[in-house]
Design goal:
A hairpin with a 7-residue loop joins strand 3 (29-32) and strand 4 (40-43). With 179 residues, the chain is mainly alpha-helical. It has helices at residues 50-75, 83-98, 101-111, 119-150, 155-161, 167-171; strands at residues 2-6, 12-15, 29-32, 40-43, 45-47. It has 6 helices and 5 strands; from the N terminus they run E-E-E-E-E-H-H-H-H-H-H. Helix content is 54%, strand content 11%. The radius of gyration is 24 Å and the shape is elongated. Helix 1 packs antiparallel against helix 2 and helix 2 crosses helix 4. The protein has 2 domains: 2-49, no CATH class; 61-171, no CATH class. Strands 2-1-5 form a 3-stranded antiparallel beta sheet, with helices on one face. It has a two-stranded antiparallel ribbon with strand order 3-4. The structure holds zinc ion. Zinc ion binds at residues 6, 8-9, 11, 22, 24-25, 27, 44. Zinc ion (ZN) is lined by residues 6, 8-9, 11, 22, 24-25, 27, 44.
Length: 179
């Protein structure tokens, strides 16, 4: 599979072989201007440039992460969680999605090796408390920012105006309004 770009409608797409015309706008040719005041006719579809390939793979990655995130969120009700645990899990998933990976790895690394009754377990509990506070604060401030941007305090309205992985949409999954 190679990546192609349509000069007529700016569509970037994957295909086995370069098509004669764009699969989105159906254009086969475009007219380009020249220094000499003469228009020239060129094929609309051409191989994508380095910058277009990079932009495409960034968009692909973001779409995959959003899909994975929404699948995790939807799978949460199948676990036997108390209300608090369920809400924390929702906020954690949202936090990890919006936080640079290193921060997440650092916390996960410190939280997971804990053995019962060990010094590491006490340290892990302290870290968990910090993470708990951090995550709640980050989630609350995210909600407030989305409310401001949307120009309303009504969470249903904010959720309708924001993407499916926004904090407002995650808040709507809460079993009761905690914030
Ligand atoms: Zn096109």
């Amino acid at each position: 599979m190679d990546l192609y770009f349509c000069c007529a409608c700016s569509y970037v797409f994957k295909a086995e072989i370069m098509p004669e015309s764009c699969p989105a706008c159906r254009q086969a040719n475009v007219f380009a201007s020249t220094d000499f005041g003469k228009k020239v006719e060129l094929p609309a579809v051409r191989p994508a440039s380095e910058a277009e390939m990079q932009a495409y793979s960034d968009a692909e990655k973001a779409a995959y992460e959003e899909k994975a995130f929404l699948e995790w969120i939807d799978s949460l009700p199948s676990y036997d969680l108390s209300d608090d645990e369920y809400h924390m899990a929702l906020m954690l998933l949202h936090h990890f999605k919006t936080t640079p990976g290193l921060y997440t790895k650092h916390f996960i690394g410190d939280l997971l090796p804990a053995q019962k009754g060990s010094i590491e377990e006490r340290a892990a509990q302290a870290i968990a408390r910090i993470l708990h506070i951090d995550v709640k604060e980050a989630f609350t401030s995210r909600i407030n920012r989305e409310r401001q941007d949307a120009g309303t305090n009504d969470i249903a309205e904010v959720a309708a105006q924001t993407p499916p992985d926004s904090a407002a949409n995650v808040l709507r999954k809460f079993r009761r309004d905690e914030l």
